[in-house]
Structure formats: structure tokens, C-alpha cells
Design goal:
single chain, five-stranded mixed beta sheet, Nucleoside Triphosphate Pyrophosphohydrolase, about 15% helix, four-stranded antiparallel beta sheet
């Protein structure tokens, strides 16, 4: 599980990674790429995504990731949060907050700006996205399609003896 931070009260609080996902559509198709053999999520389809950097607002991070990976440009004001997922990564079991933003407007020329990481960007019909997908992404896309704004994924169920604590 993720490392913990300790408050001045001595109480331990979990730390989380925060990542952003840019959902870019064209005529009902979603922009996706097949990842190369990477240490994390090898040989699966993914949308433009990445970790936020220190001091960076989420919408700015999503626009940066979109530009860095695809060459496409979006204004943070043109992004709309469509889903928030609190999940656990299968890589290191890190707790993560994943934000999924839909780009209402975007421009630029589509390029494979990180060919060492992905095989190229292609448009896929949202009703028939390619497989394989990371399980968390498949779940998030289903929730987005059904208008569900929040989900939790891959958390171990609480033990039967666990009791709620005061916040």
C-alpha cells in the first residue's frame, strides 16, 4: 500500500499519487494508443495520461500530458471532469486518485510524440474500444458512459472486524 504521512497529532494519513487522463473525441471516436513493452501496463491500450507534477493544477497537467504524448493542444478551461476514481494500482499497490477529463475543444497536429512508449495514436469507436485495456480504465470508461461521476476500484474489502473511526 502507499506510504503514509504523519500529522503533528501523530495520526497517520495515506499518501496518494494523482494522475490525469485526457479523453479526446472525434466523431464518436476516442483517441487511444497501444503501449509498448513498458514496466507499467505493457501492451495495453491507453488514453493520454500521466502523473501530476508538484504545484500543477489537474487541468493543466491533463493538457500537458495530452501535448507531450500526442502533440494536441487543449486549454485547461476547455476540460470537463467526467469521472474521479480512487483506485489501487497493481504496480506497487499504490493508492491513486485518477481524474478523467474530457476535452471539449482541442487543436494541433496529432503525432506520436513518445514513440518509445507507444505505437501511435488512433481513433477508436467508443462503442467498441480495443482490448486489452487496463482494468481500471475499462471500468472508468463504463462509468463515464453511464454518467457515474465517482468510483472506487481494486480496494481490498474491509475486514469483518474493522470498525469505523472518528474523523
Amino acid at each position: 500500500m502507499a506510504p503514509t504521512l504523519t500529522a503533528s497529532s501523530g495520526r497517520a494519513y495515506p499518501s496518494h499519487y494523482a494522475d490525469v487522463h485526457a479523453l479526446v473525441y472525434r466523431d464518436g471516436d476516442l483517441l487511444m494508443s497501444l503501449r509498448r513493452d513498458q514496466p507499467v501496463y505493457p501492451r495495453v491500450f491507453q488514453v493520454p495520461a500521466g502523473l501530476m507534477e508538484r504545484g500543477e493544477p489537474a487541468t493543466v497537467a491533463a493538457c500537458r500530458e495530452l501535448r507531450e504524448e500526442t502533440g494536441l493542444i487543449a486549454d485547461p478551461a476547455d476540460l470537463r471532469l467526467v469521472h474521479l476514481m480512487h483506485h489501487v494500482s497493481p504496480y506497487g499497490r499504490n493508492a491513486r486518485l485518477a481524474m478523467f477529463f474530457e476535452a471539449g475543444r482541442w487543436g494541433g497536429d496529432l503525432v506520436n510524440a513518445e514513440p518509445e512508449k507507444c505505437e501511435g495514436w488512433h481513433w477508436h469507436n467508443i462503442d467498441a474500444v480495443p482490448e486489452p485495456l487496463p482494468a481500471y480504465l475499462r471500468t472508468a470508461l463504463q462509468h463515464i458512459r453511464h454518467g457515474i461521476p465517482y468510483s472506487e476500484f481494486a480496494w481490498e474489502p474491509p475486514s469483518a472486524t474493522a470498525r469505523p473511526t472518528d474523523g
